[in-house]
Amino acid sequence: MKKIEAIIQPSRFDAVKDALHEIGVEGMTVLEVRGHGRQKGHTEFYRGNEYKVDLLPKIKIEMVVPDALAEQAVQAILRAAKTGKIGDGKVFLTHVDDAIRIRNDERGDAAL
Amino acid sequence: MENRNRGLISAFSLSDFYASESLRIQQSFDGTGDGLAVLRGRSEVVDTAVASLYRHYFSSQLDQPGKFCMLALGGYGRRELFPHSDIDLLFLTESSAEQASQRMAIAALLRELWDLRLRVGHSVHTLAECGRLYRQNLEFNVALLDCRYLAGDPELFNRLHDDVYPHLVSRDHQDLFRNLAEITRARHRKYDDTIFHLEPNLKDGPGGLRDYHVCRWLARISAIAKHKVWGPPEELWPAAWRAEAGPAWEFLCATRCFLHFFRERDDNQLSYECQDEACARGIGFQRGADPDCGGTWLPPPSPEDWMRAYFRRVRSICQLTLRLLDDYTPAGTGLYGLFQNWRSRLSNADFSVLREKVYFRQPAVPAQDPALVLRLFEIVARHGLEVSREAERAVAEAVAHGVTNLLESGVVWNHFRQILCFPAAAKALREMNRLGVLRALFPEFQAIDSLVIRDFFHRYTVDEHSFMTIQNLHALSRRKLRDRPNPDAAPEWEDRLAEILEELEQPELLYLALLFHDVGKGMETPDHVEGSRQAVEAIMTRIELAPPDRTTVRFLIVNHLEMSTTLQRRDIFETETVRAFAEKVETTERLKMLSLLTYADIKSVNPEALTPWKTELLWRLYASTANHLARSADDERLTLAVASASAAERILPLLTPSMTREKIERFLEGFPRRYLAAHSPEEVALHLERAERLASAPTQVQLKAQGSLHELTVITQDRPFLFASITGTLAAWGMSIVKADAFANAAGVVLDTFRFGDLYRTLELNPSEAERLKSNLVDVLGGRMELAKLLSGRLHATQTRKPKVTILTKLRLDDSSSSHSTLLELITQDRPGLLYQVSSVLAELGCNIEIALIDTEGEKAIDVFYLTAQGRKLSPELQAAIEKVMFAKL
After folding, report:
1. Among the four residues B104, B192, B391, B586, which has the most C-beta atoms within 10 Å?
2. pLDDT (tens digit, 9 = 90+) per residue, B378-402?
3. Does B265 have pLDDT greater than 60?
4. How far apart are CA B155 and CA B153, in angstroms?
5. B810 contacts in A (CB within 8 Å)?
6. How far is CA A13 from CA A8, A38, A76, A84, B258, in A?
7. Percent of residues, chain B, with pLDDT higher than 70
8. Residue B332 clears pLDDT 60, i.e. is over it
9. CA angle at residue B359 from B353 to B360, to 5 degrees?
10. Residues B864 and B743 both lie in one domain
11. B21 closest CA partner among B73, B83, B74
12. What is the average pLDDT value for chain B, to the nearest integer?
């Protein structure tokens, strides 16, 4: 099993969600986050006041998928989230030892 | 039943009996839908089981009764056991000595009940303990209000029932009232103080079964305290309310029985699935049970209609609860009581205010003076008061007689706009809806009355969501930056939105749009936005809203999802997204309104819907769009080919026949697009007619009152020092400019609009002075009068005033935003003659003002000038000179 964490543009979230549904990934956790990568932000002015736009709003999605589906899911995210511009985000992949469904103690892929 | 259950001693036969009786009760309910029969039936079955167990485990008591008895409390005490309700038992003893001797028997009896899968709650108390008030936990004291004798020493029970407990109640009834009020209000708060949840909890939610019990308890406490009688508490309620609450109670009982049977547990939430099933089975709609159906069994056609019937009933219980709490909660002499008495000062010639309630001075009058009905809700909206029972009756009567139809259209809007803008608007609107006034004035609202639209995120019915938007926006306006716990910390995103709410010129239009933005959800139209638009068009025609105001409301309704869609689907940090959005909103005022509408709309979906993350996105889109509108005015000019041609179509019918389409297009060519957005076709037609007269009179001046301000429009040929001359003349007259737009077209015709406050009320007190101001302007612009002379004395006199808030001057020159001009953004302390000072400096330095966008926010002046020198952007040297001179002057 693999855990996929992806940080994406908020405007690409619907497209990413649809792309994952299409390949059979139904469950995911979604977080509203702020952050920056190499795109460090800039300063804006509104009515004479400076506003630093250093931490940009992003969406973070997390999901655990069977090994066989991991690469497909990553590709789906990449396809749907890419605009080609700075700030498109990143995808992280990690190995997961086990998963347990709290309701009925199912384990492994069956719990996903 | 007694015969059937004789000898039920063994656990097996008892459980057999209980199971078969439970099945019989359920089957009977499936056939009749009679909830009250279930309650009675189940109580009898449990009574039989308890009596049988008592005979078995307390056999020694049967021969030699000691000072011990068994009582039912709560729902069981009332003989109202729902299919999966708990059983509450009290083992009462004379002294603690009896408790020890009965311990084993009590434990055995409880075990048997648990084996029957009954959920039993029990307590063991002495008589003396039952006469004590438990201030930290009054629930036990309240539970005794429903005590019922089951078995054991009847004398002991009688002492509790007739002496000990009545003594406690008459001594401590104020504490009991207060405690009941506190826990009830806390429970209502947990459900956001509204009955209109899409999936309500019919036991604990406002207007639910628990509220009905509270009403009984309040009446019973009062009866015991005053007369030491335990009669049916419902009989102490006002007759009209009893008539409404009774059927509502039966409806809720049937529904809860259905829920328990359907879910096979003590589940009290009416989920969508349960609503479908309840509707399909016609729960609560037995023959003759529903007065709305004329006594005939008529199942509601859809789950939405079933829920409407549910809300109607729950509303009557909720009203009864709030009224009784209000009646029985002691005003006392504490601070709250003093506050309530102080509020009686709000009484006036038409209304008296007593203990937070409004009364008509002459109850018969509303039937003759329809406007009085609206004024009643004005006072409610202004001060957050309650409508008294008497006033309710008078309003209901007036509505039934169609009094609201007699109101003239203009009168309706004059009062309604006030109601919308007062802080407790949402409360007044809910009351107007409840009493039928809202429907009488705006039948369109009926479409969403108690309407459930199933949605994963929405928590409230459509009408309640609409009221909630207005409530949330008023709550936002109460946020004050200075009240923040840490004033040095960066303001919250909501604080920033609160600032723009304060700046709105016509907040009533935003509130009107919010009230009707989702009316289309209850209409047949496939797209609810289009339905809402159609409804609001009819409403605006009826209330005779001014044409420019209609355009604003229409814009807000049609685009009410636009901003949230942009936030969700577009990258708001992209210039193109901001540009496209700015093109849609066209003016800063509309942008402010749409941002606030979006805020209120999302926030009212459910209490968690608007996260700080989303609020930040919303504010950032607002700020970037506001900046774009201020910084791009001269890049987007009307061209003959595109925009001005379509605008000419709209303006042509408003002009005299001699005016041709070509003349209109020539006039519009070269004006910023913002000009058309900022002025209605009627205003543009007027400007054009004035511009046509320039050949004979080179300065055209128009002056009119605009609310508390005055609006001055000057049309003339462009020339150096023009802007400075106009602002100088206004300063010489002591006028304070709060907003201004200055535009020029391709032919060099300048159109400047100023909104100003009349600091010394010169024009108000001397109407003829308006003509002299206009002629001064014509003379100054025509070179026949010296501005310096006009100004002498005035500026010196006014500059000596000290400002309340100090604003630091900030100046920013920007070459990148516009392709033709250099932008000067100036934030500084507002003061008389400021614009004259700034514009004369610019003129002296040889700058031409292409466009000026002037705004004021409290004591802060926010000015944007698009400047050129000899037709080009300003050189770095000139920019440096401006900076130096401006800082020196300001």
Report:
1. B391
2. 999 999 998 988 898 889 888 888 8
3. yes
4. 5
5. 48
6. 7, 21, 12, 16, 41
7. 91
8. no
9. 125
10. yes
11. B83
12. 87
- Domain co-membership, B737 together with B665: no
All residues of chain B having their beta carbon less than 8 Å from the beta carbon of residue A56 are 573
Taking the C-alpha atoms of residue B721 and residue B825, their distance in angstroms, rounded to an integer, is 19
CA distance B790 to chain A (A): 33
Domain check: are B461 and B593 in the same one? Answer: yes
Own/partner contacts of B793-800, CB < 8 Å, gap of 24 or more, are: B794/B731, B794/B732, B794/B733, B794/B734, B794/B832, B794/B833, B795/B731, B795/B832, B795/B833, B798/B734, B798/B759, B798/B831, B798/B832, B798/B833, B799/B831, B799/B832, B799/B833
The pTM is what?
Answer: 0.80
Domain span including residue B236: 191-328
B613 and chain A: CB distance < 8 Å anywhere? yes
The pairing of beta strand B822-829 with beta strand B860-868: antiparallel
Picking from A47, A53, A55 by the largest number of B CB atoms within 10 A of its own CB, the best residue to mutate is: A47
Cα–Cα separations (whole angstroms), residue B24 to A60, B29, B79, B255: 55, 9, 18, 18
User: Which helix (H) or strand (E) covers residue B89, if one does?
Assistant: strand B87-93
Q: Domain of B347: which CATH number?
A: 1.10.3090.10
Q: Which among A14, A32, A46 is the nearest to B613, CB-wise?
A: A32
Q: What is the mean pLDDT of residues A48-53?
A: 74
Q: Helices B588-603 and B612-631 sit at what angle, rounded to 10 degrees?
A: 170
Look at chain B and report how many structural domains it folds into.
6
- The per-residue pLDDT for B340 is 61
Q: How close B253 comes to chain A (CA, Å)?
A: 33
Calculate how close chain A gets to B453, using CA atoms only, in Å.
23
Would you state the structure tokens that stand for residue B116, as one six-digit string?
A: 């029957």
Q: Which residues, in sequence order, are CB contacts of B377 under 8 Å at separation 6+?
A: B415, B419, B428, B431, B432, B437
Answer yes or no: do A48 and B611 touch at CB < 8 A: no
Task: Tell me what pLDDT residue A54 has.
Answer: 77
- Residues in B 816-835 with any Cβ partner in A closer than 8 A: 825, 827
Residue contact B613–A34, C-beta within 8 A: yes
CATH number at residue B41: 3.30.460.10
pLDDT tens, position by position, B239-258 = 878 888 989 999 999 999 99
The pLDDT confidence band at residue B338, using thresholds 50, 70 and 90, is low
**Chain B nearest-CA residue for A88:** B571
Of B130, B165, B186, which marks where a domain is finished?
A: B186
- Closest chain B CA to residue A50: B810
Domain assignment of residue B1, yes or no: no
Predicted confidence at residue B7, as pLDDT, reads 46
Q: Which helix (H) or strand (E) holds B122?
A: strand B120-126
CATH for A2-36+55-111 is 3.30.70.120
Asked if the Cβ–Cβ distance from B812 to A47 is below 8 Å, we say no
Helices (H), B588-699: 588-603, 612-631, 643-651, 661-668, 673-678, 681-692
Chain B, nearest residue to A9 by Cα: B571
pLDDT digits (tens, 9 = 90+) for B30-63: 988 999 999 999 999 999 999 999 988 887 766 6
Helix (H) or strand (E) holding B189: helix B165-190
Question: CB-based contacts of B512: which residues, under 8 Å, 6+ apart?
Answer: B416, B417, B420, B536, B553
pLDDT attached to residue B752: 92
Is B437 within the bounds of a domain? no
Q: Is the pLDDT of residue B343 over 90?
A: no
- Say if the ipTM goes beyond 0.85: no
Q: How many CB pairs under 8 A join A and B?
A: 44
Domain-located, residue B624: yes
Residue by residue, DSSP assigns A42-98 as EEEEETTEEEEE-SEEEEEEEEEE-HHHHHHHHHHHHHHH--SSTT-EEEEEEE---
Give the domain-ending residue among B328, B354, B386.
B328
